Amino acid sequence: MSKILLFDALREATDEEMQKDSTVLVIGEDVGHYGGSYKVTKGLHAKYGDLRVLDTPIAENSFTGMAIGAAMTGLRPIVEGMNMSFLLLAFNQISNNAGMLRYTSGGNFTIPIVIRGPGGVGRQLGAEHSQRLEAYFQAIPGLKIVACSTPYNAKGLLKSAIRDNNPVIFFEHVLLYNLQDDIPDTEYTLPLDKAEIVRSGQDVTILTYSRMRHHVIQAVDNLVAEGYDPEVIDLISLKPLDMDTITASIKKTHKAIVVEECMKTAGIGAELIAQIDEHVFDDLDHPVIRLSSQDIPTPYNGILEKATVIHPQQIQKAVKDICSPKT
Question: Known Pfam families for this protein (predicted)?
Answer without folding.
Answer: Transket_pyr, Transketolase_C
